[in-house]
Write the structure tokens for this entry.
Amino acid sequence: MWKKKKALLSDETALRARAVELGVNTSLSPTYNYELQRRVLEAETYLRARRMWLFALISAVASVVSALAAWGAISLKNCAGN
């Protein structure tokens, strides 16, 4: 991933292509390459954070399901033992 970022930032054509892919405004003057780099990196950071939020939610749901399964197993064991 790091190599891709370094290559992306040094190649203006690849940078503009990635900006278009992310929906970043590319109508800036060609002299504002730094601003375009900043916007692309900011968009990538936003997408990464959004994916992490989804993973955290899935993890929380899995934990609840696991806790319910453990609770159910203990309840069934207690009912069968009596």
Q: What stands out?
A: Residues 2-81 form one domain. Helices lie at 2-10, 12-22, 33-81. The chain has a mean pLDDT of 82. The chain has one domain: 2-81.
